[in-house]
Amino acid sequence: MKFVFIMFLSIFPGILHIEVPDFNKSAQIILNPLTTNKAKFVALRHIFGSNEASWANHYEGWSVKRLNHFFKIYQFNIIQTNKSHWRGTHNINVIAQKNNQILTTTTAKIITKQYLNNYLVDQSVSELKLLTIWIKMYDQQLKKQI
Q: What long-range pairs does 66-69 form, CB within 8 A, spacing at least 24?
């Protein structure tokens, strides 16, 4: 889970423009029994990425609601959100700007840990070990950025 880039931008001012697959729309296409197999394959590839490069791997299932929440907790203001489609792929486009609140690396790590906690099935020892691994990965990514 690659949160360091957003966290890095959260510390410094700037505008961020991202485009991500619309998971909800793609899932609707895949689950619709009337959708052709071709359209289902295209939607699946788009959800998971084409994987020919590190940037072409998709690790999250984003919706407008989840993106808005994500940007809000990292103290970005959404400037614009829209949906687009191209040749059977469906996307969410977001333009956001860091607000004026200062976000320290310590605070960003706390926010990230709270956010990742949402992905745990429960608070069992094995699940908490996963969270520890994710936070170690986060720390490693952060060291590369700073």
A: 67/20, 67/92, 67/94
Rg (CA), the chain: 17
47 within 8 A of 58, measured Cβ to Cβ = yes
Give the domain extent around 38: 4-145
**What is the block-wise mean pLDDT of the chain (146 residues), using blocks of 10 residues?**
51 78 96 97 93 83 92 91 95 90 85 93 97 92 75
**DSSP labels for 31-60?**
H-TTS-HHHHHHHHHHHH---SSGGG----
Which has the closest alpha carbon to 145: 30, 12, 41? 12
The total domain count for the chain is 1
How far apart, in whole angstroms, are the C-alpha atoms of residue 90 and residue 22? 5
CB contact at 8 A, 96 and 76: yes
